Amino acid sequence: MDNKTTCNHIFDLAKKDYPIIKNTVLTFIDESHKFYDKYCGYSHIILQNNWKNSNDYRFCDIEPIEIFIGVQFENKDIKKESVVISLLHEIAHSTNQHYQIKNKKTFIDDYHGTNFYKHYADILRWAEEKKIFKLTYGGKQRFTQNNLQRVDAFGIKSIDIGEILL
Ligand SMILES: [Zn+2]
Prior knowledge:
Elements: H1 3-17, E1 25-29, E2 41-47, E3 52-53, E4 57-60, E5 62-70, E6 72-73, E7 76-77, H2 80-94, E8 98-103, E9 106-109, H3 114-129, E10 133-135, H4 145-154, E11 162-164
Parallel strand pairs: 1-5
Antiparallel strand pairs: 2-5, 3-4, 4-8, 6-7, 8-9, 10-11
Helix pairs in contact: 1-2, 2-3
């Protein structure tokens, strides 16, 4: 399976278990696209503004519109494991709530905070259970926030982070 076929297949499986993304569009991009960066993923979401407050943060529901995933770089396929983990990262954004941290009297977006990494770990556990992808980098610590941040920072670099089980 090429990168696009693999991603479409994973996205279909995710739609079954996460109905919030059932109408979300998956779009493949290359480096000419404005959303392309070294992490090769982007989620277009719309905030629902039904904020719920906690002590030092607040969160609201989202409507996920579109996920953009880079599958090629300089006309070469990006390593499939890197593409798949980017897709799972974006699925985590598109199936989570949106968080903001209190900063004095205002709130600032918290795209990659503790709440995100907890949910991202859940998505990676789901992928492992469904025999889609197993994150191996980090071993027993693979689902911790520190390890997942390290994995995310690799971006499209060709590093052994896990195995495709499909
Ligand atoms: Zn992200």
